[in-house]
Automatic annotation (TrEMBL):
It comes from Salinarimonas soli. This is DUF4112 domain-containing protein. PANTHER family: MEMBRANE PROTEINS, PH DOMAIN PROTEIN. It comes from the Bacteria. Pfam families: DUF4112 (PF13430). InterPro entries: DUF4112.
């Protein structure tokens, strides 16, 4: 006896319609921004560096690879529906980082100080929180320092 064939298309259509969420996109942007700009803390300081500064040590090619990785954040922001003027600010951040980062030695120091990807992450998060598309990541309640609490 032949069994009727069940076509799984409705299941796949539902999964496709649900797609990745806005939170998934923000997590991807956040991961890349942190990897690029603040992956490692410099021992003995409170400063962080990412692979952007390391890639900047390789003349020309390193800066181009860094700009390409940074462009992914801009692409994700466009997919999230950020307005053109915010996208332009993000492009400006990457352009400044790439242009000054291409200058030998001075550019490497600049890459440590100017964190274009973290700035772009902040633009995306501020937009999503400001338009109500994402809830702020704030804990409600009072903060009390441990050394100041009442006994």
């Amino acid at each position: 006896m032949l069994m009727p064939r069940v076509h799984p298309t409705p299941v796949f259509d539902a999964i496709k319609a649900a797609g990745p969420t806005r939170a998934d996109a923000v997590m991807r942007i956040s991961t890349i921004a942190r990897l690029m700009d603040s992956a490692v803390t410099i021992p003995g300081t409170n400063r962080t560096v990412g692979i952007d500064a390391v890639l900047g040590l390789v003349p020309v090619v390193g800066d181009l690879v860094s700009a390409a990785l940074s462009s992914y954040i801009i692409w994700e922001a466009r997919q999230l529906g950020l307005p053109a003027w915010k996208i332009a600010r993000m492009v400006g951040n990457v352009a400044v980082d790439t242009a000054i980062g291409a200058v030998p030695f001075v550019g490497d120091l600049f890459d440590v100080a100017f964190k274009a990807n973290m700035r772009n992450l902040r633009i995306v998060v501020d937009h999503l929180e400001g338009t109500g598309q994402m809830r702020p990541q704030v804990i409600d309640g009072e903060a009390v320092r441990l050394d100041e609490r009442r006994r």
